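Protocol step 4 of 5: obtain the predicted structure for the target chain.
Materials: sequence only (see below). No template structures provided, no constraints applied. The aim of this step is simply to have a reference model before the mutagenesis design in step 5. Sequence pasted as it appears in the construct record:
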Amino acid sequence: MWFPVVGAVEDGETLDEAAVRETGEETGFEIGVVGPPLFTRGFQWVFDGTAYDQEETCFLVRISGEPPTDGRWSEVEKATIVGHRWWTVEELRCTDEAVYPEGLADILERFL
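Step 4 output (structure tokens):
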């Protein structure tokens, strides 16, 4: 399963601040600002036996084409994530792999 950079908003953070922090933690890229929000959605999921009812806002962020790094991953991320990479819209559209959120290629295409 593949998904974009995600994470929780910490106490006192705005959504934009959380997106900047999570991008750094999960990719190694330090960004100053995020772009426009692409969407907000609610969904439920289960991780390690715990059910979550979550709302997420996904932002457009532009960075260089260098590969992401895992140097700031948490221990849980290191234990559960088996790979990371950048995808083109066409690669997202053509893959047989599970990509979340569903329809991500169409969402990105509207903004790029």
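Step 4 remarks: The chain has a mean pLDDT of 90. Residues 15-111 form one domain.
Proceed to step 5.
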